[in-house]
Structures
1.
Amino acid sequence: MRVISWNVNSVRARLARLLALLRRHEPDVVCLQETKVPDNGGFPFTQLGAAGYRAILHGQRNYNGVAILVHDPARRCDLWAFDADSPSHEVVGVASGPGVPTEVRRGFPGDPVPDEARVVSACVGKLQLVNVYVINGVGRDSDQFELKRRWMAALGKWLQSLPETPPLLVVGDFNVAPDDRDVWDPEGLQDRIHCTNEERAWLKDLQGKRLWDLLRTTTEEPGIHTWWPYQRDAFDLDEGLRFDLALGDGAVVDLVERMWVDREERRPAGRLGKPSDHAPVIIDLAEP
């Protein structure tokens, strides 16, 4: 099972690149962040449907927005309700009969900013899958920094409350570089947004004793980046950060076969248009 997580930085602006990515990697599931389109207009359902993918949306005009693309028909029969309050958590088919919950969860309980489209979740391919776009935080002195703390704490509380089965996979743009190995210039960026001790502590609290950074279960290699600013030739100089993460519980850790970053997607390519400032993260998993 192949899962891709990508901050697409506008699904409309990056549509040609997204379709090329689907052809290149043939993923079973794609989690997108910063789609920047509302649910009721602008999302490229037709083009993605022609490529064999159905979309689960939690969108917002101009800002935020998350989506899960599921390859059809390979995974659609494993789509079921994602709701900690549901009376049943067994895997059921979408068309299993009346009364079967089929809606995914948009947002999460206790979200301090429920009007912002930042989390969408579903159970796909026998995994509990959560796709997140964490608040940026702006800077230590901003109200957004404190909001980021509260938001991550609330998200972590919900994640820890989810059922132990099926396996839990959480992917997305966390806007936190977990440690100095994930920062091109740890000394120069010390105490800067994404790299502060506070944010790293919030991320550890969110993970708790349940969730592991899947990349670090496969390698300790430093300098694996997923984001580079557009300015100052940062990509060519590899002046990047890693804050596009995949977190998994122990059951998911045991399923990981390979995980890597598609750096080539971040490289400018004229015919496909300007790239996102993020590169896709790709996770190959054994079947649960």
2.
Amino acid sequence: MKCIYCGRENPEGETFCECGRPLRLGSSPTMAASGGSAYTPSPDSPFAAQTLDSVKRKRSVPWVPIILLIAVLIGVGVFFMLRWLAAKHITDESSWKTIDEPSFSITVPSEMEKGEMLTSNMSSADLLGFYTSRLAGFDVSIHRYTDPEKEMYSGVTAEQFAEAQKMRTTTINGQKIEFKPRPGKNYVFIEYNSHHPNYIKKSDEVWYIEAMFPTKNAYYLVDVYCAQEDKDEYRESLMKWLDSFVPKL
């Protein structure tokens, strides 16, 4: 006899299926034809009020937990997708944007947002801009020449300026480093690592490329940086940001 609940075949004459449910809830044409007697469960039986429809309803798929699980998985996927895109944009020049300030312009990844938490490290320099993201950032400061400095430094190259300032070799955080000229560009730069909170969101261990751009009225200090662990992957892009820098004063 076939159980109407689970579909299991049972020997003739059995009252209950192996699944625990009664095989005869009442008379049926099949039972009458086979000479079987009708079975009426007692009121105390746990299956007395059970019908095929009620069993099917109990077996219905729990859609709410499944939908919630799918929503969580989609959210996690979107989160990691956005992080992947942000990392890709650091090196993808087609996604970069040009930030055009009154005193300078520079082309950087589109995720860069202007911040206000940074102050200049140089008392004689004015902070012009600080931009950051989760993975990288940059800041720009300017030192305006005094009248004697204008006479001394007007028209000099970046390399000549670094030598005149005795900045060709310097020590930062115990690291002895030397300003190097960028071929084909009028700036010199140094590279070093330092611990700085809030410069980027990913890490407080930051890799800096600091560049110096002399003009006839002032010299700019431009820092571009990323997490120290990412320097090998992002260094070329950071140098391209510096290559795009245009002083306006």
